[in-house]
C-alpha cells in the first residue's frame, strides 16, 4: 500500500464508505479510520428512506421538482449548483444501491416510494423503516471486496486526536487506538466524515451517544471554517429513552400517521387544519414549531399524540413492522392499537464544516462530507435527503481528493492526548441548550455566550474541551448574528425572514478568537477560502 496513492478518511458511515468505494474504483487506496466499526456508525440508525425522483408511482416526478422542493425546504440558503448536482444524481445513486442488494420495498420489480415531509410527490425509496441499516450493509459488503484487494485498509476503534495544519495546508492527522492506546500519524489528504454535533447536546438528540462532536471541534481549532451553525433541526416525533431521544420515523406520517392534541376534550388534528395541502408532512421545522405552540395553548391538554391506529394491516406488516417492534420494546405501547405521545428532539445539524461544491474546506487537502459538512440542506433538511447527501457528498469529496492524493505514510508516534471530561461536556450542553432551543432570543444567547467565556477563562478546561467550547461559542454567536427567523432558526425578537440574511453564516478562528461573518451563497460554489 505504501507504493500507492492514498487518501485518509475519518469516519466509516455512509459518507466515509461512499468515499472509500469511489476511491477504490479509481485505483486509489484509502485508510478508513473510525471511532466505531461501520456496523455501529450513526448511519445505521437512519430509518425512513432516501430521496430520488425515480417516478415509479405515476406522479410524473422529476429531478427539477426534487431540486425545487430541496431549495424551498432549505429556505433558499443552499448553493443551487450543489443542490442541482445532488438531485440530478439521486436516481442513479438509488439504482446503484438496489443493484448492490439493498432490499428496497418493491412490487413487480418497481421500487415503491413513499411521501416524506416538504415534498408533494412520492419520492422516498425505503427498506421498511430500517433503510440506513440496509444501505450500510450493502456498502460494507462492497467495501470488503476492495479490502481484499488492498485498496481499503480499515482502522476501527481509532479516535481522531489532532489535525496538523501548516500555512493553511493539511500536514497530517493523528489518531489513537482506543484498545492499545498507541498513536498513529497519517500523512496525505484527508476527508472528514465524522457526522454531526450530537455530543454537544447530550441526551437531547436522536443520534448515537458515541458521536461526541470532538472531531469537529479539532477541525475548527485547526483552522477549518464552519457555516450555518445556528441551523439545528428539531424532529417533531421523538420520545425520551435512556441517554438520548428515540426517533419515530417520518415514515410513520408518510404512510398516514396523524398528529393531534386534546383541545376542549376532543382530538384536534391541528396540522391538517392549519396546512390542508401537506398537513402532517409539512417540513420538520414547521411541524415542530406548531407542536410547541399548541402544547402551550390553555384550551389544549396533555402531549401531542401520533395516531397510527388507522394504518392498514398491509402497511404494518410490509412497511412499518420494525418501527412497531421498536416502539413496543422501548415504550410498551402497541402503536397499532394506541396513539403515542411525541415531542420534538434534536435530530440533524444542517451546519458544519464549510465546503464548496467540490467538498473542499478552507484548509488545503482537507475535505468534508456527510453531516460533518455544511452542504445541500440550507436552513432546514428535507427528510430523505440526509442519506442521499452523505452518499453523494462522499463521492464528490473522493473525486476531488483524487487530484491531491499522493503516496502516504503511517507512522507510530508518541503523543499526548486528552478526552473530553464528562463534567465539562455536561456544562457545555447546559449552556448551549439554554440559548439554542427551538425558539431563540437575544438575551438568552448573550448570557450563554458570557457563560462560555467564563468557562474558557476558568482554567479548568483541557485542550479538547477548550476546542469544544470554542465551537459551541461559534454556534451561539452564529445564532446571535442572524437577526431573522428562517427554517430551523427561530428568533422571537426577529420573527420574520429578511432578504438581508439570505447569506451563509461563516464561523472561523482568528488569533484565538471566534469570528463570525456573512458570505454570499454563490461564494460557496467556488473556493471557501
Draw up the topology in text.
Elements (H helix, E strand, L loop, with lengths): L4 E6 L3 H12 L3 E5 L16 E2 L11 H11 L6 H20 L6 E2 L2 E2 L1 E2 L9 E2 L5 H18 L3 E4 L2 E9 L2 E9 L5 E5 L2 E3 L21 H9 L3 E2 L4 E10 L2 E4 L3 H4 L3 E6 L2 E3 L1 H5 L9 H12 L4 E8 L5 H6 L2 H11 L8 E10 L2 E3 L11 E3 L4 E2 L11 H16 L4 E2 L2 E4 L8 H14 L3 E2 L1 H16 L5 H19 L8 E2 L12 E7 L2 E7 L10
Parallel strand pairs: 1-2, 1-12, 2-8, 12-21, 20-22, 25-26
Antiparallel strand pairs: 1-23, 3-7, 4-5, 6-7, 9-10, 10-11, 11-24, 13-20, 13-27, 14-15, 14-19, 16-17, 16-18, 18-19, 27-28
Helix pairs in contact: 1-4, 1-11, 2-3, 3-11, 5-14, 12-13, 12-14, 13-14
| Helix/strand structural class | alpha+beta
Q: From the 3D coordinates, which CATH architecture of the domain at 5-195 and 350-413 would you assign?
A: 3-Layer(bba) Sandwich
| CATH structural fold name of the domain at 5-195 and 350-413 | FAD/NAD(P)-binding domain
- Fourth-level CATH superfamily of the domain at 5-195 and 350-413: FAD/NAD(P)-binding domain
TL;DR of this structure?
The protein has 14 helices and 28 strands. With 529 residues, the chain is α+β, with helices and mostly antiparallel strands. β4 and β5 form a beta hairpin.
How would you describe this protein?
It is built from 14 helices and 28 strands. A hairpin with a 2-residue loop joins strand 16 (258-263) and strand 17. The strands form seven sheets. Strands 1, 2, 8, 12, 21 and 23 form a six-stranded mixed β-sheet that branches. Strands 15-14-19-18-16-17 form a six-stranded antiparallel β-sheet. Among the domains are: 5-195 and 350-413, FAD/NAD(P)-binding domain (3-Layer(bba) Sandwich); 240-344, Succinate dehydrogenase/fumarate reductase flavoprotein, catalytic domain (Flavocytochrome C3, Chain A, domain 1, Alpha-Beta Complex), CATH 3.90.700.10. Helix content is 33%, strand content 24%. It is an alpha+beta fold.
Amino acid at each position: 500500500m505504501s507504493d500507492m496513492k492514498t487518501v485518509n478518511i475519518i469516519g466509516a458511515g455512509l459518507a466515509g464508505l461512499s468515499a472509500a468505494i469511489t476511491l477504490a474504483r479509481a485505483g486509489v487506496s484509502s485508510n478508513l479510520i473510525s471511532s466505531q466499526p461501520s456496523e455501529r456508525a450513526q448511519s445505521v440508525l437512519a430509518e425512513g428512506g432516501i430521496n430520488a425522483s425515480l417516478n415509479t408511482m405515476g406522479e410524473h416526478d422529476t429531478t427539477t421538482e426534487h431540486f425545487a422542493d430541496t431549495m424551498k425546504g432549505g429556505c433558499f440558503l443552499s448553493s443551487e449548483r450543489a443542490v442541482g448536482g445532488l438531485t440530478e444524481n439521486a436516481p442513479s445513486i438509488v439504482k446503484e444501491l438496489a443493484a448492490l442488494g439493498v432490499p428496497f420495498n418493491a412490487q413487480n420489480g418497481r421500487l415503491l416510494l413513499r411521501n416524506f415531509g416538504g415534498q408533494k410527490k412520492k419520492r422516498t425509496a425505503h427498506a421498511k423503516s430500517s433503510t440506513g441499516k440496509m444501505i450500510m450493509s450493502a456498502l460494507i459488503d462492497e467495501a470488503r471486496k476492495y479490502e481484499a484487494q488492498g485498496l481499503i485498509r480499515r482502522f476501527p476503534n481509532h479516535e481522531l486526536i489532532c489535525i496538523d495544519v501548516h500555512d493553511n495546508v493539511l500536514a497530517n492527522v493523528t489518531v489513537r487506538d482506543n484498545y492499545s492506546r498507541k498513536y498513529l500519524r497519517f500523512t496525505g489528504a484527508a476527508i472528514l466524515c465524522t457526522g454531526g454535533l450530537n455530543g454537544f447536546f447530550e441526551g437531547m438528540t436522536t443520534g448515537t451517544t458515541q458521536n461526541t462532536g470532538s472531531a469537529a471541534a479539532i477541525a475548527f481549532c485547526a483552522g477549518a471554517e464552519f457555516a450555518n451553525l445556528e441551523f439545528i433541526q428539531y424532529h417533531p416525533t421523538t420520545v425520551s429513552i435512556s441517554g438520548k431521544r428515540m426517533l419515530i420515523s417520518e415514515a410513520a406520517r408518510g404512510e398516514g400517521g396523524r398528529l393531534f392534541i386534546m383541545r376542549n376534550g376532543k382530538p384536534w388534528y391541528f396540522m391538517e387544519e392549519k396546512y390542508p395541502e401537506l398537513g402532517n408532512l409539512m417540513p420538520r421545522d414547521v411541524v415542530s414549531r406548531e407542536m410547541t405552540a399548541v402544547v402551550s395553548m390553555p384550551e389544549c391538554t396533555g402531549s401531542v399524540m401520533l395516531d397510527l391506529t388507522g394504518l392498514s394491516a398491509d402497511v404494518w406488516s410490509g412497511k412499518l413492522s420494525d418501527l412497531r417492534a421498536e416502539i413496543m420494546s422501548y415504550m410498551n405501547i402497541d402503536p397499532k392499537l394506541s396513539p403515542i405521545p411525541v415531542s420534538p428532539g434534536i435530530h440533524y445539524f444542517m451546519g458544519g464544516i464549510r465546503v464548496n461544491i467540490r467538498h473542499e474546506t478552507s484548509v488545503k487537502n482537507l475535505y468534508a462530507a456527510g453531516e460533518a459538512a455544511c452542504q445541500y440542506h440550507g436552513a432546514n433538511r428535507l427528510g430523505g435527503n440526509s442519506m442521499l447527501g452523505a452518499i453523494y457528498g462522499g463521492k464528490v469529496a473522493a473525486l476531488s481528493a483524487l487530484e491531491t492524493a499522493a503516496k502516504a505514510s503511517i507512522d507510530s508516534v508518541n503523543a499526548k492526548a486528552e478526552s473530553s471530561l464528562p463534567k465539562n461536556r455536561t456544562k457545555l450542553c447546559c449552556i448551549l441548550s439554554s440559548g439554542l432551543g427551538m425558539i431563540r432570543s437575544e438575551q438568552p444567547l448573550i448570557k450563554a455566550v458570557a457563560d462560555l467565556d467564563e468557562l474558557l477563562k476558568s482554567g479548568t478546561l483541557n485542550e479538547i474541551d477548550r476546542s469544544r467550547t470554542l465551537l459551541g461559542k461559534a454556534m451561539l454567536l452564529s445564532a446571535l448574528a442572524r437577526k431573522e427567523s428562517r427554517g430551523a432558526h427561530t428568533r422571537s425578537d426577529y420573527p420574520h425572514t429578511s432578504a438581508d440574511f439570505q447569506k451563509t453564516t461563516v464561523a472561523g478562528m482568528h488569533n484565538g478568537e471566534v469570528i463570525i461573518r456573512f458570505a454570499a451563497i454563490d461564494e460557496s460554489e467556488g473556493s471557501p477560502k
